[in-house]
Amino acid sequence: MGISYYYENLPRGEKDKFVIEVADAIGQSTSNTRLKMKNGRWSKTEIPIIEGIIAGRG
To answer: Of 53, 43, 55, which is closest to residue 18 (Cα–Cα)?
Structure first.
């Protein structure tokens, strides 16, 4: 499952929480993180961090 696919299928309130959680984990702004969600341009070091967040959310 892709990160952007996961994000797009979250309910509206959960999208904001997910973006904030990811932004904090990768040390970037929420606006930049939202842009990355849209474009899917993640660095190789960010992908395992985000996959860990998704796995932790169940």
So the answer is: 53
For every residue of 26-55, DSSP letters joined together read HT--HHHHHHHHHH----TTHHHHHHHHHH
Tally the residues of the chain.
Answer: 58
pLDDT per residue as tens digits for the range 41-50: 999 999 999 9
Dihedral angle, C-alpha 18, 21, 25, 30, nearest 10 °: 80
pTM of the model: 0.89
Residue 34's alpha-carbon distances to 5, 19, 24, 46, in angstroms, are 13, 7, 12, 14
